[in-house]
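Contributing: when you submit paired examples, paste them exactly as shown. First protein:
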Amino acid sequence: MNVLPLLLVMLLAISDACAISINEGMYNPAGEDNNKEFIELLLDTPMNLSGFIIMDRASNDTLVPLRIQQDSVYALIVEEGFNTTSINASIYSAGSSIGNNLDNSGDAVILYAPNGTLLTNVSYDGTLANGNGRSIEFFEGMARESLETGGTPGRENSILAVPVNVSAPDNESEDRGADGNDSNVPAEEVPAEEEPPIECNPRFALSIPKEVYQNSEQIAISFRLNYSGDFIIGYGVEDLFGKIVKQYLNTTNLRTKTYTPRIKERDKVLVIKARLLVDCTDVISQAEKQVIVLNPDATEASASRQAVPAREASSPSDEEEASIERAQEQDEEKPKRTKIDYELLDLPSTIGHDSEFTARLLIDNNQQAHQFEVWSYIYRGPKSYSGEREDNLQRVNIEAGESAIIELQNIVEALPGKYKYKVKIRKDAQSTTTDITKELAVIANASTGGEEALAETQNVSMINPALVSSLDIVRQQPLIEPRKTASRQNPVRAVFESKGERLKEGIPYFLIAVLALIVLVFVWKS
């Protein structure tokens, strides 16, 4: 029986009955961590969370109620010995520590229903509220450092309680007599007040159209930001345990991004994360959304080996070991996939003249281990307009069942017009190649509109250099270093030409050389 649809129905039913979200967390209090860490949940309506499971990336705990507060929509998960005095919330104990003692360098917090249904999760990387006495507050997928020392357990988040600056109304009695009538005493001239500085408190959010996707279905990622200055957004995709699924990229615009999940499990929860850095503050804002990806084509064997949260860590029973062995035997008997998938990522449609850009090639190797050679160039007819055609050739070994992303850099040296971009892939030194060809337009000046089409990482160099230098939140690094990078030291250089074109150009020189040789022989004989 396929229980996946039933689990989804249960998940939606629980969400409709009482939506639960992780609202706040204290993972590294000032001083000793013991008995001071907490996780705050926000409920639509009060409910009893006895038997629910809280876990980090290392272990899990079953919630034990210490106090049920029927008039509060806040539930606090604490360690033993936590001081709950004057906290208006339901209190639950996770034991001596929450999970395996929330990691100060980064961790995930995941909440499950007693039946194992995933309810909500968040993660952090240690850049906010790390040992300074503040907590992390979450709102609409955004993470911010609390404005109050100690956080706001059992109360509204401090980032939602920031007062709006409103000009005070004039006090009419100041310029009037005791009876309220106009006074004959002239009012003193009051110097004009300086305008208060504009607060640097950008609101940042991430949104996606829905929460459940099919495998290989494109996910549209949108950003919302009420800020007009320079900014950088770093975005990527991780799983629940912090493993990077899509490498982080930088962007300096709010255009919609896309991501296409490709999973091998029957279903998987992915977390789309974004981090914002603006030029008016060093505070990093975070936002995230989680999606469920379904893969109906997954094999029974691979699905049976997915990790299911347990109440207590224990060794598998004899029956469970036998089941795992049978699944492995069935998996070995199934025919292996023999397809290799290639996908070109992040290729702009327009490029400015004399500009450098980066495209990324995804190779998904479902065969045995192979060596791949990959290179790219821009061309029209027989001529290459990005230097020698193999200038950026890269070699990479990919094991069976593994994937790799190769970054290809090219410099365009061509007049405005339509060209083609080609990626060539050679497997195991074979004579034939697999080619990917795309249309590409070269425009006159990248600074008058071309930057909107450049790759996201290229846009970073166009904004405040101080802002870029302080950006340490994006973890993207080239996975494969290029063997050679096209040089821009010679802005004017001959483009690469085919052998036929070179032979045509060399014929006059060849005839001159032959004629000179005949003259020399004639002179020598005479």
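Second protein:
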Amino acid sequence: MSTKRTIQVLIKLLPSILALRKDRRTWVRQEGKNIDTERYRKNALKVLNTFINLGPVYIKLGQWLSSRADILPQPYLEELSKLQDKVPAAPFDKVKPIIENDIGPLDEKFDNIDQNPLSGASLGQVYRGSISGQQIVVKVKRPGIEKVVAEDLEVLKKILPLALRFVDPNLRFSAKAMLAQFIETIHEEMDYTNESSNLRKIKQDMKNNKNVVIPSVYDEYSSENVLTMEYIPGIKVTNVEALDDKGIDRQKLVVDVHKVFFTMLLRHSLFHADPHPGNISVTNDGKLILYDYGMVGRLDNETRLQLIRLYLALVEKDPPRTVNAMNELGMLTPDFNRSVIEKGIELTVRAMHGRKPDEMEVQSLMELANKTMSRFPFVLPKNLALYMRMTSIIEGIYKPHKVDFKFVKVLREILEEEHLIKDAYIEELKYSFQRFAKSIDATISIAPELKKFIDDNRSIQLLNAKPKSNILLSGSILSAAIFIGSAVLYSSNESIGITGMIGSLVIMGISTLFRKK
């Protein structure tokens, strides 16, 4: 079965792989400029439809690829981000045994369950019901999905790494890691105890935010295969007409969407990574309701601060700091060429942002990252890929509203309200001083004759009748080491580099004064 399925998948994917290879090469060569955008979107739409036809695993793969700026050109990312997970639901008589096996007899545990599904997805389907008079929704794993996923993941292990290398040899750096990340993600989504845990954590993190409503979980009615939650209906976030009928301030709504998701990202360790319009509704009084916590990203504190550093560097159009932050985040391969990547970022920023940073929107920031990543051998960590997916999808939410919105202004508000700017600059200073210390150490280690010279002169110092001259010698050596280290550091941080050079001159001056006394 595996061989037959592999051939079937390969035949269906081959036209898309060939088209992507050509489109990516043109995109990289022309740096995303003067391309036939319509042709790119047409090819991307064919990829989207192919994934839908191939079934659940490939629908998930399409959603995952929509976050991979290191693999796909921007028009592909935009099209695949529209891929919403909608699949006809399996008959209820096949779903009922799953619920009863995990939770117990339906007529004993529930008041009722509507056998007509609210929605069907690749991995599960959702039903309305009630428990003790409370309206609930029950999310049930699709019958037989484990076997389908296992078979198709085996096929992907054979096809995907080869396909990506064929598209671009540079992708050999990210192909294996990307596949491992995707497999990990799909397994996490298939275990509803993970989603339950995600939901509770985000609900706790956002409890003081008055602009968002998060459903409660019914733990006694939930398991690995079943997730029972509070039912909270609302207006779809992109339904402009219905929102206007309710008198919702849509400009404030757009700001609230960004504040909620970016606060999750930049303040807390867990963020919702799938904010497409089907997962966000609005209450009658304008609060956001978030659904579906299967796809989340996790950032440790160090990564979170580095991401803030990266954002500030991009907003402030500072290529050296941008490269520093990207390297600290693990986005660059060990043998990356700093000067080449810095130049690429600098040229892209110049070409794209003739405007003031305050006027830059999230799309321009993402295009900057996408174009740069497509040109160099980047290794995009899993949770940063999920972050980019989240950011890209949110961009699509506010477009239908056509309101006056400046992303960077909102981002700065978040950073100020959450007291994050100070933390980011402290991290920047820590990084600069660490690099400074390494530069001095490197300077000394590459000049062993200096060490030998110092050792040789220790005996002379004991016999020398003019000890004050040794102060000048020691000061000269220390001053030289600091000056050379500062010169090395200057390329990545001018301020610290200049400070170090001035410091070296001060040390030299003090040494001279002591010698004269």
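If you have annotations for the second protein, write them as plain sentences, like these:
The chain has 21 helices and eleven strands.
Residues 356-360, 465-469 have pLDDT under 50 and may be disordered.
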